[in-house]
Amino acid sequence: MPWLKNQQEWTGTRLVFELLPGQLRFTHEGLTPDKECYARVSEGWREVIGTNFLNYVEKQQIRTTYQLQVDFRQPSAQVFKSICDPGRWWPEDMEGIAQALNDEFIFKSGDAHFSKNIVTEFIRDQKVVWLTTESRRGQDDFDWSGTRFIFELLPDGEHCNLHFTYDGWVLESEEQRLRELCDQTLRQALVQAAG
Q: Which one, out of 50, 98, 117, 154, has a CA that is 20 to 30 A from the CA of 87?
């Protein structure tokens, strides 16, 4: 944690996991309110134990980072314009717009799937980031809220390279399928839309 003045605040502390009937009790012994890192680390443990670990145990849901690179024959501006118009290439119905910072939009497939998203980063012709703020899948209540879809464009003469990152939630049993869907959507549908 490079932001700490005292890099030794965790030295001598203990992470304790107690398994009780129907319950996990987690304690970071030695992490006290007088420590500089107390507030941020306490919040971090709530996320790691209360969300990430709980989702994994209950649903075999894991946080994953998947990256993909796609070469385009078109310039960055043309590809960026297509990324910002996902209604033309995303494989679900879309409501709303994704063409500027803080734009909100929804993807849905009838009652089977729904995700509300917001544009959290927007650098014209270079980078756009979508954050899923609310989601649900009807068949199993799978929730991928907090997932980020990161599109970064790097010019290459008259062409460009897209560096895509999926940073978020997936059911462990569906991780390979997620990779295949991202690959297919970006390498085929987005390439066709940008063409």
A: 154
Tokens 């203990």 sit at which residue? 14
Burial of 174 (0-12, 13-18, 19+ CB in 10 A): middle
State whether 113 and 155 are in the same domain: yes
The domain total for the chain is: 2
Report residue 81 as tokens.
């314009």
Q: Whose CA is closest to 115, among 93, 133, 89, 101? A: 133
Q: What is the pLDDT of residues 62-86, one digit of tens each?
A: 889 999 999 999 999 999 999 999 9
pLDDT tens-digit series, residues 36-69: 888 888 888 888 888 778 766 767 788 899 999 9
Q: Pick from 95, 68, 72: which is nearest to 82 by CA?
A: 72
Prediction pTM value: 0.73
Rounded to the nearest 5 degrees, what angle is found at the Cα of 46, between the Cα atoms of 114 and 65?
Answer: 55
Q: To the nearest 10°, the Cα dihedral for 96, 97, 102, 107?
A: 60
First to last CA, the chain: 44
